[in-house]
Design goal:
Layout (H helix, E strand, L loop, with lengths): L1 H19 L15 H5 L4 H16 L2 H10 L10 H17 L12 E5 L6 E3 L4 E5 H6 L4 H16 L2 H14 L2 H6 L13 H8 L5 H17 L6 H15 L15 H15 L4 E4 L3 E4 L2 E5 L8 H18 L9 E2 L5 E2 L8 H8 L4 H19 L1 H5 L1 H18 L5 H13 L3 H14 L4 H13 L3 H14 L4 H14 L2 H13 L6 H13 L2 H14 L8 H7 L1
Parallel strand pairs: 1-3
Antiparallel strand pairs: 2-3, 4-5, 5-6, 7-8
Length: 561
């Protein structure tokens, strides 16, 4: 089983190099088989769909394809991308990745984000975990971080629950009648045809998700963003903003396609229900912008900046919800009277600011709110409300914990993550390479590729002492493995010590377990030195060992043909 999947991964990565033309070499694996045999032997639509799904999952775990799709997504607006939209989205995304409660399966790539200039209120996540966000969506939301977090959480769910791969198989079979899918996922190519045509790019970047999966993305996206510390009213507020575009503007595409998305207002109701449950049943929004507390009208929300009254109502209710969710005791709210007579509580977290501002707009409302909160805690202690309302979230958290344990037990997946790390390094994506090397090491602390790969990551960051110390440990542990010497050669090359780098290349080629990538490293060194004939000799040897490699410089490749 391990061998078979390794072969498939080799096929995916090698053919990706063929189609992309990216400066990337094929992985160091001998076997090359594709999906043609699987598809060709499919007896019926169900088995063929299963094979297509397997193909998409394998292709979706390929850094080269992810990078190809990332580079080809340029947006549609004839202008520069909004820098503030980029800043806000990237900042929110980083927090979601670090703090959100979600599980990235072993056969999924790290998430990658791109904000593009496009006026449409739209976002998508494809099956390589590449998320594309239109800057027009961010500006339409008034750069509100909680609404942006809600949309990103939704898209992340499509990725970590692998909705895109599951739906793509059905879409391919239905819309391409099986034959085109078979040709696209053939044994001779990487899984989406010999080249990424415009039609295939359009197909691959669209989610094609069905209604049940959209509902799952809404629900899990809510918990992903809320667990990361964002305002749990953000998803409902985002839906309120969406409804304006779906009801009043004909400029929405994939994200709001009626055929495969629940009605926006129904989605808003679902998000509002999650918000209320998150707040132990206390906050609720009625009549568009009336904020209720325990079925008693607390205040009527007003527009604030870019957010209309309905959005503000959900953000205010979200502050109440987070306060109750995160604090088991009323004393934790730390109600206090300021010098100017205003009532303050909790801390300076931005999530609570809409609530605090709304309470300060009316004299005495802060004190009334304090009384309501104190009464609510007293009642909750009698009814066990916390356990009741948070049951669904607890069950989700427990399932995630079980899935993490299950994924951690699959030590056989370590080689694939290490391979991905090497591919990311060859693409020049050091941060993503580190993520995959660390995932490989977490699965198998003794994985040599992961450790030597991390050494090259340290080298790329100019931590040469740390890089050499790590790679020397690998070489000491496995002196017959050529890969360790190649990694050290790369480190010496980065240091400018070409003599030692070339010596390690020779050692890698003389090792019992030869690593032919040493030819490529040596060729690069000679090319940098201006020794073109020596470089040509090395590149020729590399090409002979790896006929499908596309990372040989074009000037040399032309002489090898």
């Amino acid at each position: 089983m391990l061998r078979k999947r390794w072969q498939r991964m080799a096929a995916v990565a090698a053919a990706a190099a063929l189609l992309s033309g990216a400066p990337l070499g094929v992985p160091r694996a001998e076997a090359f088989i594709g999906l043609g045999d699987i598809l060709g032997g499919a007896a019926n639509a169900a088995s063929k769909s299963s094979a297509v799904r397997a193909g998409y999952l394998d292709a979706g775990d390929n850094p080269v394809l992810q990078d190809e799709l990332y580079k080809k997504e340029l947006g549609d607006a004839a202008r520069e991308v909004d820098p503030e939209a980029v800043r806000v989205t990237e900042d929110v995304f980083a927090i979601l990745l670090e703090k959100g409660d979600y599980v990235l399966r072993n056969d999924s790539l790290p998430f990658r984000l791109k904000v593009v200039p496009n006026n449409e209120f739209n976002a998508y996540c494809n099956f390589t975990d590449f998320i594309c966000m239109n800057d027009g969506l961010v500006t339409a939301c008034g750069y509100n971080r909680d609404e942006v977090a809600a949309i990103l959480g939704h898209e992340m769910t499509h990725g970590y629950n692998q909705h895109t791969a599951n739906a793509a198989a059905k879409y391919a079979i239905a819309d391409f009648a099986g034959d085109l899918a078979s040709n696209a996922l053939s044994s001779a190519t990487f899984g989406v045809g010999s080249e990424l045509t415009d039609d295939w790019i359009k197909f691959l970047k669209v989610k094609n998700i069905n209604v049940p999966n959209e509902k799952d993305a809404d629900r899990n996206g809510f918990y992903t963003m809320a667990s990361a510390g964002f305002n749990p009213g953000g998803p409902a507020a985002a839906m309120a903003r969406m409804s304006y575009y779906t009801e009043h503007r004909d400029q929405f595409t994939d994200f709001f396609e009626p055929a495969d998305h629940p009605d926006t207002r129904n989605r808003l109701k679902d998000m509002a229900a999650l918000l209320t449950a998150y707040g132990i049943g206390h906050p609720e929004v009625r009549n568009v912008n009336d904020v209720y507390f325990d079925k008693e009208l607390l205040l009527i929300a007003e527009p604030d900046g870019a957010q209309d009254a309905e959005e503000m109502a959900y953000l205010i209710a979200g502050g109440i919800a987070k306060g109750f969710h995160d604090h088991r005791f009323v004393a934790d709210w730390n109600f206090r009277t300021l010098e100017d007579g205003r009532i303050d509580f909790l801390d300076d977290n931005a999530v609570y600011q809409p609530l605090k501002n709304a309470l300060r707009a009316e004299a005495g409302l802060g004190a009334r709110f304090q009384t309501m909160v104190e009464r609510a805690y007293e009642n909750d202690s009698k009814t066990n409300a916390r356990a009741t309302f948070l049951k669904a979230e607890l069950e989700r958290s427990q399932k995630n914990a079980a899935l993490r344990r299950s994924q951690a037990e699959h030590t056989k997946d370590a080689p694939y993550k290490a391979l991905n790390g090497e591919l990311y390094m060859k693409l020049g994506l050091t941060d993503f390479a580190e993520k995959e090397f660390r995932r490989a090491s977490a699965l198998d602390p003794n994985n040599l590729r992961a450790r030597s790969g991390m050494a090259t990551v340290l080298s790329a960051r100019k931590d040469y002492d740390g890089a050499l110390a790590l790679v020397n440990e690998v070489i000491t542990k496995a002196p017959a493995w050529g890969g360790g010497y190649v990694s050290r050669a790369i480190i010496y090359r980065d240091m400018g010590d070409h003599e030692r780098a070339l010596a390690d290349c020779n050692t890698a080629l003389a090792a019992k377990d030869v690593d032919s990538y040493a030819y490529k490293v040596a060729g690069d060194i000679f090319d940098a030195q201006g020794a073109t004939e020596n470089a040509l000799v090395e590149y020729k040897a590399y090409h002979e060992a790896n006929p499908s490699a596309k990372d040989i410089p074009a000037t040399y490749m032309a002489r090898l043909r």
